[in-house]
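Hello forum,

I keep getting stuck at the same step: I have a sequence, I want structure tokens, and every attempt I make locally crashes halfway through. Rather than fight my setup again tonight, could one of you with a working pipeline run this one for me? It's a single chain of 294 residues.
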Amino acid sequence: MTNAQPTKQNTPASEVWLKFWGVRGSIPTPGAGTVRYGGNTSCVELSADGEHIIFDAGSGLRTLGLALAAEAVGQPLSLTLLLTHTHWDHIQGFPFFVPAYQPQNHIRVLGYEGARRELQDTLAGQMESPYFPVALAQMPGNIVIEELKETSFSVGRLAVRAVRTKHPGVTMGYRIETSSGSICYIPDHESTPGERSGEVGEFIKGADIVLLDAQYTADEYVMKKGWGHGCLDDVVRIAREAGVKRLFLFHHDPAHDDTFVDAMLAHARELAGPMLVDAAREGERVMLSRSPVG
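Reply #2:
Ran it on my machine without issues. Output:
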């Protein structure tokens, strides 16, 4: 595993951290109104126990790729990309991922079946002419795409579990157990009123950090029920009932500017009790540390 990191800091191998490169849902939203929380679609980086994992390949993957390539200065990168599903806002950054164009790099892409097509066909499809000038097969990087069948697997020393979420198509969430705590990444899930100990609630039980789809306010959800995204009030309640230690509101709606997200966060904190709640912010780096016993 390369020691290359997306910042100039020399991070000890024992440290576990997340960095947000894309936190938006549906479509990139650049502009003055999204400067603080960011406008790129889903992409989160995890460095843990000798592994470098990327959750989803939304438009944030482009800037992550540039940072990785710059820091590696020609040394090989070994990366694992975990895809939750193949809706465009979760794969649109892959054609612009610089490490995939460098032959010294090894990129393992893991996910489940695409929408009506196999995973590899779906990733290749968005790069076919007339949509894109370079085909997936022409990328010089050593890219291996694996379509998963089981919901428990490993990435190096890391144990990973997946869960089916409530979202159109085959959509999964992931839970990774690291030496410094557990992380759940569930960017697309319709948390509904009355949902208590459902499968996702059990899946996130006791997790140290949870990134969970909180795209809609309660008023918005009434109009968008069945669209496959979470209602903020129910997301917070489910996380509280599951004993989550820190919740990040994720998959911000493209219509929500920074001020609107601020208001959603303030409301979430009113509902959260002792649970820590934040809104995922592009560029933020979050350290995980296991509390000492005794």
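The radius of gyration is 18 Å. If your local run keeps crashing, start a new thread with the error log.
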